[in-house]
Amino acid sequence: MSSLNHSEYTVDMFGHSNDTYTVVRAVSLMVHSQTEGHRKRMELQTITSGGAATAKRYANAKRRAAGSSLQDVANLAKVSRATAARVFSDEHLVAEKTRGAVRRAARMLNYSPNLLARGLAGGRTNMIGVLWALSGTPEAIGTTHLLAEQLEQCHFMPYITDAPAHGAATKNMLREFARRNFDGIVMQIGDARASADDLEFIELLSCFRAVVLVSAQPLELGFDEVVCDRLSAYREAARHFANIGRRRPAIITAHHSNIQKVEAFFDEARQCGMEVLPDAVIDIAQGHDLDATHARGVLETRFSDTSFPFDAVMCSNDELAMLTGAWLTGQGLRIPDDVALAGFDDMRISRVLNPPLATADRRRKEVADTIATLLTSRLDQPDLPVRSHDLPMRFLWRESAGRDPMCGASGPVIDG
Length: 416
Prior knowledge:
This protein is of the alpha/beta class. It folds into three domains: about 5-30 and about 230-360 and about 400-415, Response regulator (Rossmann fold); about 45-120, no CATH class; about 125-225 and about 365-395, Response regulator (Rossmann fold), CATH 3.40.50. It has 17 helices and 13 strands. It has helices spanning about 5-10, 15-30, 35-50, 50-65, 70-75, 80-85, 95-110, 115-120, 140-155, 165-180, 190-195, 200-205, 230-245, 260-270, 290-300, 320-330, 365-380, and strands at about 125-130, 155-160, 185-190, 210-215, 225, 250-255, 280-285, 310-315, 340, 360, 390, 395, 415. The strands form three sheets. A six-stranded parallel β-sheet has the order 2-1-3-4-5-11. A four-stranded parallel β-sheet has the order 7-6-8-9, with helices on both faces. Strands 10-12-13 form a three-stranded mixed β-sheet. Helix 2 (about 15-30) packs antiparallel against helix 16, helix 9 (about 140-155) packs parallel to helix 17 (about 365-380) and helix 15 crosses helix 16. The relative contact order is 0.13. Residues about 1-10, about 15-50, about 55-60 and about 60-65 have low confidence and may be disordered.
């Protein structure tokens, strides 16, 4: 999808509070509309959800329609049937030139292997289960789309499902993946302590050839992991606000579910000499779906009898920051002159607002690339040592957060 042109699509986000949220949601939905490739992935997931029998009938029907078989592919590529089969199961054992010839022949004949049938016979299925929290903002779950693209490029078929909220449901999903002979699992972990104490959960993960766990803190469960620390971005934002002379910070969160990010922000603020007022946490308690009318109502009620006392505000996501900015402007306050403002998630629209919205970068592309690399290397080399990669989230300075920070080794990233 082509990127937005800054000069053509600049939105005065903090000008009219009544129309702002409609604009934000419309552009957000446009940017995040599902691609044709994603639709095809969903179709494949629907097919595989019917079990091995359904998948086998589908694969055989496609093959009959195309009139091709593995032997046909081998004949066209001028290799043995065994070599052709190996390309679709353990391709690292086949020379690159031969792999290319076999895959070109398969494309010409519209041939696709029956992965589930191969799995039932004890071979590689090239299927990867992805358990990820899909109830957040579009940007928060954007890693799954990037990960799916990476895995497909490596000839894997990702099966993406919402990570269950309860441990029993998670275990049932892992058992189902194991029953279908999935090669690997990618799983987002919310509660590190509970996971470490659950021996049955760890035993289920051990059923798979490759496992990559993604969490906000190190797990050390004996599997490859990617650590995405969000607290680092909150601390960087607090340091930036202090460095530009702001003294009374606040944090606005849509659902006060992660006390650690609040504590990290205010702990850093205090260390930098800022004054943390008793009512500096503003909780828009409305669950995962952000309602613009409700959010404005909370702010109106909270500050109906007093002026807004804060000069720097950190919001838990970009949508909430846009709503807050619109409300502040409606109160006669200027962004960033009177109140420096930052969000979280780096939505595409955030960079074309007026002023551009400071935010936090989840480093989605790096996370997806790292997960794919860990998975593929583990499947190719099972005896590799357990690996842990740190990819802390970063504060991205833009004009809504106040004047340019003085660049330093530990300062925020300045987004171009």
